[in-house]
Description:
Strand content: 5-15%
Number of strands: 9
Number of helices: 16
Shape: extended
Structural class: alpha+beta
Distance between the termini: 92 Å
Largest sheet: 5 strands, antiparallel
Helix content: 55-70%
Order of helices and strands: HHHEEHEEHHHHHEEHHHHHHHEEE
Amino acid sequence: MLSYSEIERQCGRQWLRSVRPLAMTCNFTRLNFSYDIAGDVNAKDEELLKREKEIKKLHAETESQIKGRLSQLIQPNVDFDGSPLLNYKWYFERESVLYTTLNFFQPERSWYKGLCWCPLKDRDKVNDEIDFIKKNKRVICSYLQEVHNYDLVPPTYFESSEFVLSFQEIVFTYGVPSYKEANPVLFTMITFPFLFGVMFGDFAHGLVLLSFAFYICLRKDYLISSKSVLADAIPYRYLLLLLGVFATFCGFLYNEFAAVPLNFISTCFDTLLPDGETLERSDPSCVHPTSIDPIWYASANELQFINSFKMKISVILGVAHMTVGVIVKGLNTIYFKSSVDFFFEFLPQLLFLLGFFGYMNVMIIIKWLTDWTPVNQNAPTIITLLIGIALKGGDPGETPLYGDGTLQRTVGVTILRTFPPNLSPLCGLHSLDADTQAHHHKAGARTRAGAHPPGGSGDDRAQSARGTHRRGHEGGGGGVRHTEEEGEEVRLLGSDHPPAHCHYCVRAWRAV
């Protein structure tokens, strides 16, 4: 076996034999010198190893210093309320909020003036805070001054609690109610978990969800102190609790325990017919006292019956839920005295909803309560009757659900009469009124955002104003939400020489 140096020498000789004739042909000068390549490689190798040790030593020292500094920052300090790192974080967050709020003010000589919305019940708290600043912070503050003439659209303000918060956020995902509009969260606190239970209904799964919610409610303090992963679910514990309650309740009504029927109460179908396959009720008036009769889960038409029942129940509850929403909308139009919205939007929508879908619910209930055994033909289908209202003038068909179809024809005519009001030219008045209100709302946002020191684009300031308007209920910025149910009103605060669009004014303080 040849060593590396031997291979190198042989390759070198071969190279010389190839290059030497070319050099002689070109009259190149030939110089003889010696070069110790092995020694140079070893020296370079030692140099790299030395540099590697120095870099590793420097890296270890740097890592040790960083860990030492971080351990100092996270250790509680008697001079601070907590660790220095938390104090740094609090300081930067405070400064960010402070300067973000100051961006809503407008400089005037050595003062800053700005506008803010304040609930009437909190005005004394704001005055007390200003008095505290005057006495203890060595600064000069002015007073709150109400401004009556303004064209801004007031922001809405809701007083929330831990129970209502999660449901209020669900409402906000669809939209924020305008100032003094009815707050749908009063209905959502029950309807949302109940409709969830209708869809999710299972006694076993509901108990699991209910137990999980109970654990979070009872161990809230422990989860927070231990920094558990479940601590993120604490703000939504009451939502989960109601979801579990209604899922368990509906699962009990469905008689389903992990998709298995519970036969803890005897069935009403206790008589076996001569064919050996069909069961019949010995007492025709017998009804299962708590839930769906468990015998249905062993019948041949189980899937058809259970799916039909759940689908129709969902339709009935869904229509009732939408009807409540439309009625709340009508109450809003009455409160704001908007006759155009009431007569050309609310009434047509309510008549169409009740005339078509409400009548459908009535037909479902009539079909359920009617004994079709004496009738030789099959019971009429709901979808066929609905199609007959529109295409056949309310013709009840060969097997009428009830009556001679007079009511169905009346319903069809009523539904058709709801379309012209929605398509009438008077709806243009509603659209114009909505556009005007939107324009005023945007103008108000620009006005609140326009009270800035020079510098910064108007779009950025308007965006900040809208963000503050959205976060007002969380205690930050100048925006607040309001609903008439709380019986509160908000006022706009501003400077002592406010523009015509102000309502309440406050002058910012300056340092002495």
